[in-house]
Design a protein that fits this description.
Elements: H1 3-7, H2 15-38, H3 42-75, H4 86-110, H5 114-121, H6 123-137
Helix pairs in contact: 2-3, 2-6, 3-4, 3-5
């Protein structure tokens, strides 16, 4: 990746790692949910499944928002005070409110243990750790001069 790729916004640094975190979140969450189902804890399996799905939705929204923020700041390179799109903050608040509402509805109507939903949301943290170790052990080509 050259510096020209970074300034035109075509390639954002770390986009492969972001994509890796995205699919690892689903794989880790669904795997743990399958194990819980196999052990006979259907309510926990459902909570882990929904929690990891919500974590994936959250990460997808966060990823898009941060990518737009990076592109906006690159477009205003050289300005003393770059303008941040105001709607980016509104979408972030809306995303977390929507996730909170989804957790509430799943907890109340499906009677899924709240701790299983929270554990499912932690699939994103586990995926981030795995992707970070993956990046350390096998970095992207041209990512850093070593």
């Amino acid at each position: 990746m050259t510096s020209g790729d970074m300034t035109n916004g075509a390639v954002i640094a770390g986009s492969r790692t972001e994509a890796r975190i995205s699919w690892l979140t689903l794989i880790i969450g669904c795997s743990i949910a399958f194990i819980a189902h196999f052990l006979g804890h259907e309510d926990w399996a459902l909570g882990l499944f929904f929690g990891s799905g919500l974590a994936w939705i959250n990460f997808s929204g966060l990823r898009r928002g941060l990518d737009l923020l990076v592109l906006a700041s690159q477009a205003q390179h050289g300005h003393e005070k770059p303008q941040v799109p105001w709607w980016n903050s509104i979408l972030a608040v809306f995303r977390y409110a929507l996730i909170g509402l989804a957790v509430y509805v799943i907890f109340i109507y499906l009677h899924v243990p709240l701790l299983s939903l929270i554990a499912g949301l932690c699939a994103l943290a586990a995926a981030t750790i795995v992707a970070s170790v993956w990046e350390i052990l096998a970095p992207e080509e041209g990512h850093l001069d070593r």
